[in-house]
């Protein structure tokens, strides 16, 4: 009879240790998943920041082109060309 309770106790202890190991493994996997998700979020944020910078640069370049075209083709430029054409040689 004494042998039986000891074996039951050993089995319970072994089961508890197994459950503890499984819990630790699950916690480790959860931490790894959270780390991967954080890295993914950081990468997405970096990509978004780069996209925003690119769009700003494109908008600035378009604005510069528009300003240059107005200088070349706007009313002031047309008046200057007309004055130059009307001036005596």
Quick rundown:
The chain is an all-alpha fold and 89 residues long.
Produce the secondary structure layout.
Blueprint (H helix, E strand, L loop, with lengths): L2 H71 L1 H12 L3
Q: What would you say this structure looks like, in words?
A:
This protein is an all-alpha fold. The protein has a domain at 39-70. It has 2 helices and no strands. Helix 1 packs parallel to helix 2 (75-86). It is rod-shaped and about 125 Å long. The relative contact order is 0.04. The mean pLDDT is 92.
Instruction: Label the overall shape.
Output: rod-shaped
User: Could you list the spans in which at least 5 consecutive residues all have pLDDT below 50?
Assistant: none
Chain-averaged pLDDT: 92
Give the ordered list of helices and strands: HH
Number of strands: 0
How much helicity do the residues have? over 70%
Q: N- to C-terminal separation?
A: 128 Å
Sketch the major β-sheet. none
Report Rg.
38 Å
**What is the SS-derived class?**
mainly alpha
- β-strand percent reads under 5%
- Helix segment tally: 2
Give descriptors for this structure.
mainly alpha, rod-shaped, 2 helices, 89 residues
């Amino acid at each position: 009879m004494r042998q039986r309770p000891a074996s039951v106790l050993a089995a319970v202890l072994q089961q508890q240790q197994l459950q503890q190991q499984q819990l630790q493994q699950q916690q480790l996997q959860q931490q790894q998943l959270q780390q991967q998700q954080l890295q993914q979020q950081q990468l997405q944020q970096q990509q978004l920041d780069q996209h925003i910078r690119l769009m700003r640069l494109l908008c600035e370049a378009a604005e510069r082109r528009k300003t240059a075209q107005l200088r070349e083709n706007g009313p002031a430029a047309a008046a200057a060309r007309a004055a130059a054409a009307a001036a005596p040689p």
